[in-house]
Design brief:
- By secondary structure, the chain is α+β, with helices and mostly antiparallel strands.
- The chain has one domain: Ribosomal protein L5 (50s Ribosomal Protein L5, Chain: A, 2-Layer Sandwich).
- The chain contains 4 helices and 7 strands.
- The strands form 2 sheets. It has a 5-stranded antiparallel sheet, with helices on one face.
- The N and C termini lie far apart (37 Å).
């Protein structure tokens, strides 16, 4: 008898986070918010600096970037469009040891269906993808009796690479 595959061990996309790090507040930050709103039809949130840095003229708590988090079907739809913009190619170095990966899109005009807007200017953004298994994530996130997931539950780098290769038809370089 062949070994049955456990469906709870299948991988899914937990979330896709889009980030634009501007480095300073002002008009450029507002343009970045407008770009993320146009790409996702979601309201972006502002990211703030954690500490001061006099070299870059940063104060603690100053708004320096913006981000949007997508989940469920919105995340997978956006990710397939993002892979179109990078030519369905991804570096194997983009994956971390926990199975998550990220890549950058240099200019938003590479994204399908988006045209150049002179008000925004030329701007790129980062796409960070977090993967999870279908079952068992509650063990680490529940309030009472939470525990660290077992080693067998964690997502390996190669496992994540195989999932992305098969699910989105991406060539790993």
């Amino acid at each position: 008898m062949s070994e049955a595959k456990n469906p709870m061990r299948d991988l899914t996309i937990d979330k896709v986070t889009l980030n634009v790090g501007v480095g300073a507040s002002g008009q450029q930050l507002e343009n970045a918010k407008m770009l993320l709103k146009r790409l996702t039809n979601r309201t972006p949130t502002t990211t703030h600096s954690r500490s001061r840095n006099p070299v870059f003229r940063l104060k603690k708590g100053e708004a320096i970037g913006t981000k949007v988090t997508l989940r469920d079907s919105d995340a997978s739809e956006f990710l397939s469009r993002a892979f179109d913009s990078v030519g369905h190619r991804l570096s194997s170095r983009a994956f971390d040891r926990n199975g998550n990966f990220s890549f950058g899109i240099r200019e938003y005009i590479d994204f399908p269906g988006i045209k150049y807007d002179p008000q925004i200017g030329m701007m790129g953004f980062d796409v960070c993808v977090t993967l999870k298994r279908k079952g068992g994530a509650r063990v680490a996130r529940r309030r009472r009796a939470n525990a660290k997931p077992r080693k067998s539950y964690r997502i390996a780098k190669q496992e994540a690479m195989d999932y992305i290769k098969n699910a989105f038809n991406v060539e790993l370089v």
